[in-house]
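Closing statement on the pyrazine-2-carboxylic acid sub-project.
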Amino acid sequence: MTRLSRRNTLKLLLSGTTAIVAGAALTPRQLLADTLSPDTNSALIVIDVQNCFVPGGTLPVADGKAVVPVINHLAPAFDNIVITQDWHTPEHASFASSYDTKKPFDTTELDYGTQVLWPDHCVQGTDDAALVDELDLPTAELIVRKGYHQHIDSYSAFFEADRKTPTGLQGYLKERGITSVYLAGLATDFCVAWTAIDAAESGFTVYVIEDACRGIDLNGSLAKAWDAMTKAGVIRIQSSSITA
Ligand code: VGL
Ligand code: ZN
């Protein structure tokens, strides 16, 4: 077990939160115990709740809009809220349309490895890239945009797909004294998962609020993502575990 996941386990045992840590389910007594109260060192990170990722958008996630009321309801429990936006250039390297012989959901090899090719989505400044209207987060303090380098995708809100280029979010959170992050949004198996794993590797305690997320599930990607998140020490919770 890593130092991080041991720390998370301890935290869980103390808080009694419903969760699975490193694949081990907690005992019924732990499952029945109380709830999590985010403190001033906690931030809610709302990932990519944009028109493109909900039905009617260019890369719709099934039932994607269902995350909006859950997130709106959670928001008052947090002193710190960060929002992310997928924010691509036209003809971005992650778009199938940028290649003569590719169609959406094919893959290609880029400098940094295998890249899934998506329908054109979240192009900078378009209505498709705007936050979903019903998202009601007036207290959010920062909006981080990502995926704006023409030749590099960025699922993670911390590091781009080359795994080297930082977005600046880690520095922002650490400078603000944030130690725990709670993740919600779209899509569970891409931007949420990559953000969660990078956050864990960057030393944050990471909770993914499962019912405040929806996945794309491309060739089993949702189960694989939960597996990878669990291995990284990410704590899987439900929104009902969070109180103000
Ligand atoms: C996302 C695919 C492509 C996401 C972004 O927000 O999960 N997925 N770009
Ligand atoms: Zn994208």
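The pocket of zinc ion (ligand 2) is lined by residues 86, 88, 94, 118, 121-122, 147 (CB under 6 Å). With this model delivered, the sub-project is considered complete and its resources will be redirected to Aim 3.
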